[in-house]
Amino acid sequence: MFAMKYMNKLACIEKDAVSNVLREVRIIASLDFPYLVNLWFTFQDVEDMFVVVDLLLGGDLRFHIQHGVRFSEEAVRLALAQMALALDYLRSRRILHRDIKPDNLIFDEVGNLHLTDFNVAAVLPEGGLASSIAGTKPYMAPEVFLTSLRQAEGYSFPADWWSLGMTLYEMHRLKRPYDLSGDMSSADCLSSIQSAGVRYSTSTSSQLRAAVQALLEPDPNQRLSSLTQVKSHPFTRQLDWDRLLAKAAQPAFRPPRHQLNCDPTFELEEMIIESKPLHKKHKRLSKLGSSSDRS
What we know:
Layout: E1 2-8, H1 9-14, H2 18-29, E2 39-44, E3 48-54, H3 61-66, H4 73-92, E4 95-96, E5 105-107, E6 113-115, E7 122-123, H5 142-148, H6 158-173, H7 186-195, H8 206-215, H9 227-232, H10 241-245, H11 264-273, H12 281-294
Antiparallel strand pairs: 1-3, 2-3, 4-7, 5-6
Helix pairs in contact: 4-6, 5-7, 6-8
Domain Protein kinase: 1-236
Pfam family, one: Pkinase
GO molecular function: ATP binding; G protein-coupled receptor binding; G protein-coupled receptor kinase activity
């Protein structure tokens, strides 16, 4: 079984999103890794473009956080390791994801995490920097805001590791370390990061705290931002990385198997709002074919 995403061609043209969609498809078509949501194939008809990818039934991390799941440190450790492997693979392909957040980390049925949504990803030339601002503000790294304010020339792969640190903190504490929102200015976001300290629970181990602190280092040159660094960190040093790469490690968190791991109300609202829902496509295309025959 597969998952399928479809995009209306006319809507993409009207929103001037065709180049973004084609860029995303080109990027994911070039990728194949255990901890990504991988592309199988694409196709199109007169109305829509279709992208067929891995089917993952465990729900995204955002869903489980919103439902109050208390993730153990072992679950956070495995999430860090799996995403470190994914980011190392993306870096080998010169790909900066730019939108790592709980919404884009999806569990499979046994509890492995997979990174998805390359809509704003960028392919960086050797030694090059990203200079456009993309992503979700509460998870953006300080250097992204500095670039927005023209106080930095650009940003690179360490920005994704900051976003991962924000995500892992939220996974552990069920809230973000900084009180940022999408409607805040870049200057206000940066000021909040620079002035507010990150608080940790007294029950948080020193090793987990050190790992998150290293990911949330404001200076990208000093930030924990490579697989080599993660492998040598006390929090993850004892992991069997060969077993991890083979997806043979046993996850500490396993999504419920006998319930929907998504919000059915949200899915229903999308069906109601959609002006040309997929389940009525056959009838629409039949009418279109009849009209063409008569003309």
